[in-house]
Write a structure and sequence with these properties.
Layout lengths: L1 E5 L3 H10 L4 E6 L3 H8 L5 E3 L11 E4 L3 H12 L7 E3 L6 H5 L5 E6 L16 E5 L2 H12 L5 E3 L2 H31 L8 H13 L9 H4 L2 H13 L3 H17 L6
Helix pairs in contact: 9-10
Pfam families: DUF2520 (PF10728), F420_oxidored (PF03807)
Protein name: DUF2520 domain-containing protein
GO molecular function, one term: oxidoreductase activity
Length: about 260
């Protein structure tokens, strides 16, 4: 399949690496030509920085830009590629948002966290596809199957719900790790001492219902420990962490309230 990538960030970079072995990357389009050249050079594609340079000799255009930029980007390239299938990689932007700008619209969403420093296991990464037309849905499904063993045809509403859950499971949990590191750094305690605990917690969450695996003072209703922890945060002059601790502890307690009834 001949594919054009719009964007040169983390998602686009990982997609290019994954697609290059089975498909042809024709062009990489970024408004920053240097970034386009760096990514295109990895797969001998043409680097461009203007929509009027896009070629129609491509089977698929993948728009891998931030959610805020999707509508404008699709609007700018649709005029030059009126007959081509254009998809975005967002978990939260609906298919309708693209259809308002382009008739042959679709979604190619990988449920994964991307960083330049780490490789992605595409075979185990869930891929979600959606399209305005059945033939395009088939094309996207075939493309997804060439990368992953876990391919799903989900509606925009299902995908948006999944993206919301992903924010809790990934973004919020990572911020919890960040807060934990702030707490131990303040007392010059080695953050790596928490690594076994972090890994074991993640393993349990993926093997068993997380509710059943909940532990800690809030789940036990141990008010003495809760008060002590909040006092420590208060003494360290971290009202932000103290507030997060209080809200999360209250949530855990309410979730497991039946244990005390």
């Amino acid at each position: 399949m001949r594919i054009t990538l719009v964007g040169a960030g983390r998602v686009a970079t990982h997609l290019v690496k994954a697609l290059k072995s089975q498909h042809e990357i024709v062009q990489v389009f970024s408004r920053n030509l240097k970034h386009a050249q760096q990514l295109a050079g990895q797969v001998h594609a043409q680097a461009i920085d203007s929509a009027d340079q896009l070629t129609s000799q491509t089977d698929l255009v993948i728009v891998a830009v931030s959610d805020l930029g999707i509508a404008d980007v699709v609007g700018s390239i649709a005029a030059y590629l009126p007959q081509n299938l254009i998809v975005h990689t967002s978990g939260s932007t609906s298919l309708i948002a693209l259809q308002q700008r382009h008739q042959r619209a679709g979604v190619f969403y990988p449920l994964q966290t991307f960083s330049f420093e780490r490789e992605v296991d595409w075979l185990e990464t869930p891929l979600f596809v959606e399209a305005a037309h059945q033939q395009d849905l088939t094309l996207l499904t075939n493309l997804a199957n060439s990368l992953s063993n876990r391919v799903y045809q989900y509606s925009s509403q299902q995908r948006q719900t999944l993206h919301l859950a992903a924010v809790f499971a990934c973004n919020f949990s990572n911020y919890c790790y960040d807060m934990a590191k702030q707490v131990v750094d303040a007392e010059q305690v080695d953050f790596s001492l928490l690594f076994p605990l972090i890994l074991e917690t993640a393993k349990k969450a993926t093997n068993t219902d997380p509710k059943q695996m909940q532990t800690g003072p809030a789940m036990r209703g141990d008010q003495n420990i809760l008060t002590m922890h909040q006092a420590l945060l208060s003494q360290s002059n971290r009202p932000d962490l103290e507030e997060v601790y209080r809200l999360m502890s209250e949530g855990i307690f309410k979730r497991h309230l039946n244990k005390f009834e």
